[in-house]
Amino acid sequence: MSITFAEKLARMPGYQAGVPTGQAPEAIAAGSVAQLASNESPFPPHEAVVEAIRRAATSMNRYPDPDATLLRRRLAERYETEPGRVAVGNGSCEILLAAAEALAEPGAEILYSWPSFSMYPYLPALTGAREVRVPLGPGAVQDLDAMATEVTAATQLLIVCNPNNPTSTHIPAAEVGAFLERVPPHVTVILDEAYVEFQTNDDPDAALDLLGQFPNLVVLRTFSKCYGLAGLRAGYAIGASTFRAAVDAVRQPFSVNALAQAAGAEAILHQDDVSRRVTATVAERLRVEEGVRALGLSATAAQANFSWIDLGAADEGEVVAGLAEREIAVRPGTALGGPGHIRVSYGTEAEDERFLAGLAELVAG
Description:
The protein is of the alpha/beta class and 365 residues long. It has two domains: 17-44 and 272-364, Aspartate Aminotransferase, domain 1 (Alpha-Beta Complex); 47-269, Type I PLP-dependent aspartate aminotransferase-like (Major domain) (Aspartate Aminotransferase, domain 2, 3-Layer(aba) Sandwich), CATH 3.40.640.10. The chain is built from twelve helices and 13 strands. The protein starts with 24 loop residues before the first helix and ends with a helix. 48% of the residues are buried.
């Protein structure tokens, strides 16, 4: 008799990493592969963060602080809140998974737009909750009105990815606030702001002002993008202390390793460095957008560190394969819910020029 596994495994969509199979991390680090598939920062961590990691590495014989005390305190100071309202996790993905475990079960509903972050389909699959997907509106922007009409008494978790991944579109905080007025208080709303520092519609912290008005709101962020710490996996959420306690209750202990805690606690002190990184990224965004238009292709109004490009008559598979042959990694749109598109992260100036040149060869052919 063979081993049987939980039925929910069959519902798991399976995460596809942005690093193409067979392309080793050392090749990417050496620059032979332009890694524009995973929305990472092309810039290494701040030197003070690297030094903090180096210091922490001498104590790897000890378990990390289970409460992430320093990291949570630094985050609380940065955002002028209480440490008890700050949850941290092994990337923002862990907090999403823990939120679903803590809030949802069979009979509940989890609601989000689609296409959006590819982790969201895991949440109903994991918990047995009913999945409610709401199509994007014009311009590949999340349709908050349509989302509000889908909320029912069974809705436990509602997620707004802002800026949205993979479409790179952003909804101003004022519109999010008006939407929250329409959401019943029994619904936990996670505002997933992994890319918020790159948008230019608002002050990056504008949505945090909504926390005082809406106790059911949770703002989710990460160190993976603008802080350049994707390899260490550290994310955080700010919301009610009850939310923080709930996600902590369902996760494994020591989920944020000591190096990630040290790096995050140091990185949050260097907001000038974040500003420099964002400025450089926005410059590359303008370069890529202009280059895409020059090829006769269209893209959404990007507000993140990546573009969502409509390939028009070009074949998605052929374009992705052709770029891979040129050692340029991008994400195919089909796997992200948008056939006929590619998602390309912004790299260095040289990498982005290389991408545009390769794309030009492929769409012209």
